[in-house]
Automatic annotation (TrEMBL):
<dbReference type="InterPro" id="IPR039968">
    <property type="entry name" value="BcerS-like"/>
</dbReference>
<protein>
    <recommendedName>
        <fullName>N-acetyltransferase domain-containing protein</fullName>
    </recommendedName>
</protein>
<dbReference type="InterPro" id="IPR016181">
    <property type="entry name" value="Acyl_CoA_acyltransferase"/>
</dbReference>
Amino acid sequence: MISEVQEISECVEEKAENIYHTIEVDSRPLEKRFYKIPETIYRNDPDWIPFVREDIAAIFDPRKNPYFKHGNAARWILTTPSGKEAGRIAAFINFNKMYDGNKKVGGIGFFECINDKNAAFTLFNIAVKWLKVHYFVEAVDGPINFGENDKFWGLLIKGFTPASYGMNYNPPYYQELFEAYGFNILYRQITNSLDFSRPLPQRFVRIAQRVASNDHYSFKPFRYRAREQFVADFVEIYNKAWVSFKDFHSMDADVVRKSISEMKPIMEEDFIWFAYAGKSPTGLLVALPDVNEVIKYSGPAFNWWGKLKFLFYKKIKGFSCARVIVMGIVPEFQHHGLESALIYHAFNEGKKRPQYKHVQLAWVGDFNDKMIAIHKAMGAVEDKQHATFRKMV
């Protein structure tokens, strides 16, 4: 067995000067170092907004992340010989989603690194080795999240401006490091933006109003007091709407409950809409205020002091941007205009709140022609591009 492990390790490791050290994160002090490493990378970057540390901690806590029920994760810190932090990385395996056809696929994420190829390769090597030795993967995707793809997913490759909440931000040189190691773009993730000061196109409005007034359909905003019914409706819609996508796996109601609980402090209930045909849930749209507009002032810690600062700056600064994080229609009702009606309802609620200036439309894969066409019909313009990369190992 030892010789097999050595053989695998030699297959995945590439030549690099042995000047960096990797430390696996297995204690609270090392966790704290892991969270603070981005501060080293971005200390001179005015566009960087840190992730909330508690959000990242929850991803690697088996008590809080339901993905540990069917997967595993590991983290490492990269240091120089003198002990100075130079980068970090995490690796994941999701047993429910680890096959792409007949290939077993693992993932890496939360990659941060100084602009040095040897440093980056050392991080990639340790993560790929862990996936290869323990789970015999044949491919590695990254940067991804050990969770749903609505957060911390993809490498920024276009639009290097401040990120919305949960969206990855990185220097342009990260793409060079990924590609030098042998990663290639698997798909692009497009984020579009819509200006609240500009009216929706008239053709779009006519379709939306016609559908909204159709007695066969009804549209309801989310209400937290009735959240269990909305959780059930969300799961039903999601599991029908995305079933045709490659490597689809059904949504877990526990994941939805956890997300709703996390969103509660900042959600605008009237920004979340559901569509029904009779009593059957048929479509959904979920939009949230972009809390990064406040986090850039309050900071990444959400302990009691951090929460007080967040509430203070929330009151002082407020929100000017909303973000649509998910929208979907069950297949038999697609192309019926329900998408337009959902957007119409949420857009009108946004316009009632003059502090909101624009809305970001969550990333759409370049493979999703239907949603890209809807964004164009709304008059949205491209704001950013992320990419998910894959390396065969």
